[in-house]
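Let us practice reading a record.
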Amino acid sequence: MILYWILLLIIAFVAYNFGSVSTLSIASVFVFHRDLHRIGKKRLFISNFRRLYGYPGFAKLLAVELVRDFFPILFGSILMSIPGHADIGRAFAGFCLVLGRVFPLYNRFRGSYASICLVVSMLCINTSAGIAAAVLVALVTWFTRYPSLGAIAGALASILVVVLVVDGQLLTTLSILTAAVVLVKNLPALVRISQKKEFQLSLEEDISYKFDQKF
């Protein structure tokens, strides 16, 4: 029993810290060799990043995020396979990973929507829950242009599928808690959307940089 709790503490430390580390920070150092934080925030970042790196650049950035999310879950699975509970290791690592993403220690506990992190965590717990989360996140975000709404839809879909198909009380509880963290994080966005203050994705090209060029 003591070994079990020690392994869970190690998983919690590793997964939470991986979740707390910014994808942009990792990509800046290891992939793009440029401080991506300087490109801009939110809509400005998206448009300027696409101008500089195009959609292949977005694919590289997504790959960095996926690797960052998959590693601690794989670590948790391997570590908890020692007492024979690899599934609990994956679920607990996913929960701690999402906590780190939503409440990152290294960014004053101000995190992101955690949509991708949610999808990765659910895929590692139950394929059906992961697919449901991925589809809802993608569709709702695409049609509404609100990443927060996509995260809410993905979290709700995850909870519904988990309740229907996942066996085991502890595994089900951890899965629901993981989705609930994302849900609670993004629910305040509904108020901001009603006030038209919520960030909305835009595919329009930002050309403001051209005014800084010398003719």
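A brief commentary: The radius of gyration is 18 Å.
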